[in-house]
Amino acid sequence: MNPSTLIGILASVVLLGVVLFFSAENPSQFIDLPGLGIVLIGTLAATFISYPLKEVMRIFGLIGTVMRNERMYAQKDIEELVSISKIWMSGDIQKVEKALEKVSNPFLKTGVQLIIDMTPEQDIIDLLQWRISKLRAKEHAEAQLFRTMAGYAPAFGMIGTLIGLVNLMFMLGDGDMTAIGQQMSLALMTTFYGILLANLVFKPIAVKLERRTEERVALMNMVMQGLSMMSQKRRPAFMRETLKTFMADYEDELNDGNNGEAVSELRP
């Protein structure tokens, strides 16, 4: 499991434990299954209306992606690029094709194959940039799905609260203050559930997916830079140092902008 995700889950459990067992006289008061059902089912219903079925069905897979501790094989890609570049410099195309069979990164493999096919450098760059843009758009839409759900959850929490208040109005004539107080607390629980799900589940998943996309795009840009140098037949040693500097500069920028959080590793 991703360490930061695990820490977040544990912190959430601790937070809820404090709320339930230290801030309430009766922890069971925070359990309102009808209210939770209104928020969850309402949020899912609105999401199904907003998105095609195939996109909504990817929710569980995306949650699994956030939970996994994926790795970015930047160093491996650099070494494979440098190794293939050395063979390419020697002019032995058959050895290049044989080495290419061992490459696991499809983005890198596509670029090298285009170079072997003597495709002009600018055409290679244009194609790879198109693939990067396509990936960025696809994964932005995935993150936006959870941001949309984060907007729906509090709204359906308010709907549940309004339903509870309507029930409360019918009880005012009886003058039973205990029953009125219980109905008021239950009415507010749906708002609690909506805000909790939005800010502790949906929004964090969206941010995590966006961060993952940034890292994947950075790696793809690094590979594209290496392929450009390979197409120009730049020296492999120069290529290695340039790509290492590229990734180091990117990590520094990420750390400066995100309070020193390290870059996770994952494969584009």
TrEMBL record:
Sorted UniProt keywords: Cell membrane, Flagellar rotation, Membrane, Transmembrane, Transmembrane helix, Transport
Membrane-spanning ranges: 33-53, 152-172, 184-202
Coiled-coil stretches: none
Pfam families assigned to the protein according to its UniProt record, in alphabetical order: MotA_ExbB (PF01618)
Cellular localization per UniProt: Cell membrane
Keyword Protease appears in the UniProt entry: no
Domain MotA/TolQ/ExbB proton channel stretches: 101-221
PROSITE patterns: MOTA
InterPro entries: Flag_MotA_CS, MotA-like, MotA_ExbB_proton_chnl
Major location category of this protein: membrane
UniProt topology in membrane: Multi-pass membrane protein
Family that this chain belongs to: Belongs to the MotA family.
Protein name: Chemotaxis protein MotA
Taxonomic path: Bacteria, Pseudomonadati, Pseudomonadota, Betaproteobacteria, Burkholderiales
